[in-house]
Amino acid sequence: MLHHRLNGRSTLRALLLASAVALAAGNIFSAAHAEPARIEAPAFASDRLSVEVMGNGPDVILIPGFASSREVWRPLAQRLAATHRVHLVQLAGFAGEPWSHGDGAFVQPAVDELARYAATLNRPVIIGHSMGGLAGLMVAQQHPEAVGRVMSVDSLPFFSAMFGPTATAEGAKPFADQAAAGILGADAAGFRHQQEQTAVGMMKTEAARPAMVEWSMASDRHAMASAIREVMTTDARPGLAAMTTPVWAVYAADANGGASAAMADAVWGREYAALPGVKLVRVDDARHFIMVDQPERLGVLVDQFLAD
User: Fold this and answer.
1) Cα 258 to the chain's mean position, in Å?
2) What is the pLDDT of residues 136-176, one digit of tens each?
3) Are 20 and 71 in contact (CB under 8 A)?
4) Where are the domains of the chain?
5) What's the mean pLDDT in 229-247?
6) Average pLDDT in the chain
7) Which of 71, 85, 153, 169 is most deeply packed, by most CB within 10 A?
8) Cβ atoms of 17 and 200 closer than 8 Å
9) Distance from CA of residue 102 to its chain's centroid?
C-alpha cells in the first residue's frame, strides 16, 4: 500500500487497491541466484494460507501484501535460503490461492493462522510487506512469545492514517465500504484498467507492472473486498506502546512520482511514535514495492536486521 500521495479519498483508495508483483519481478531480479533446495513445510494445514519452505537455519517468515503473490519475495527468499530456513507465505484469496470464506472476515483469521504457524517454529523473524507488515505487527502484539522480531516494509499500523493525523477507524468505515464495493462492482475490463493505473504508483520498475496486474486479476474479489475493508478500519496503534518485540519499519520515498522524503518521514515518524525502540529506515528512489524498485538496498537492510 503505497504512499505516493498522502491525502485525499481517491489517493487512499488507490493505495489500498495495490496488487502483487508477480513472477516477472522474480525473473527480473533472481537470475543471478541459484535455486535453493526446497524442503517440505512442517505439518501444517490451513484454509487461510499456505507456506513454501526453503533452506536451513534460523526461521524467517515472509508475508506478501494485499492481493500479492509470494513471488514478490522470491528473489530475497532465494538469497536468504543460503543461511536461513525461509517460509514463503501465500494468503488465501490472493493471486490465485483458493478462497472459501465468501464475504467473511479476512485479517484477524489470517493473523491467527500466522501465529499458529509461527508457534511451530523457533521464534521466527517476520518480514511483511504492506498488509503483511500489519499482520506481522498484530501477531507480535497478540502472541509476543511466538515471534523474535518484525520488519514491516512500507506498512503502517493504521493505514487510514494517510487521510491525516485525526483519522479514526470509525471515520474510515464509509471509505472502506466504498473501496470494497468498488472491488466487487467493477467489471473485468474496468477492474483491469483500475489495476493498471494503480500499478504505476506502486512501483517504478515498469517491467514488473503487467505481472502485478495479473496477480490482482487472479485474486478472489470477495477476499479482496473483505481484506480492504478490514485493513482500512484496523488500528494497531493502541497496542504499540506495550510491545516488546523489536521492530524495524522500512518505508519508501521517491522524489519523482512518489512521496517526498520529508512527507514520508513525517508520516512514518508520527504513526510509529508510540512503539518503543522502533528503527525507522527510509529507502529513497522507491515506491511501495521496495523489494522490486530497490532490491539490493532492501537486501542490505534485511541482512542488518537479521544480524541486529
Assistant:
1) 18
2) 999 999 999 999 999 999 999 999 999 999 999 999 999 99
3) yes
4) 9-307
5) 98
6) 89
7) 153
8) no
9) 22
C-alpha torsion sign, points 153, 158, 159, 165: negative
Of 7, 256, 271, residue with least CA distance to 154: 271
CATH topology of domain 9-307: Rossmann fold (3.40.50)
Residue 28 predicted with pLDDT over 50:
no
CB 260 within 8 A of CB 252: no
Would you say 147 and 118 are in contact if contact means Cβ atoms under 8 Å apart? yes
Neighbours of 236 (CB within 10 A): 20
Q: Which of 15-24, 141-150, 156-165, 214-223 has the lowest mean pLDDT?
A: 15-24
Residue 184 has pLDDT above 90, yes or no: yes
Closest CA to 156 of 2, 259, 276: 2
Rounded Cα gap, residues 308 and 140, in angstroms:
18
Look up cell 493504521; give the residue: 158
Question: What angle in degrees, to the nearest 10, is found between the helix axes of 209-217 and 188-202?
Answer: 140
**pLDDT for 25:** 32
How far lies 229's CA from each of 11, 154, 226, 281, in Å?
A: 16, 19, 5, 28
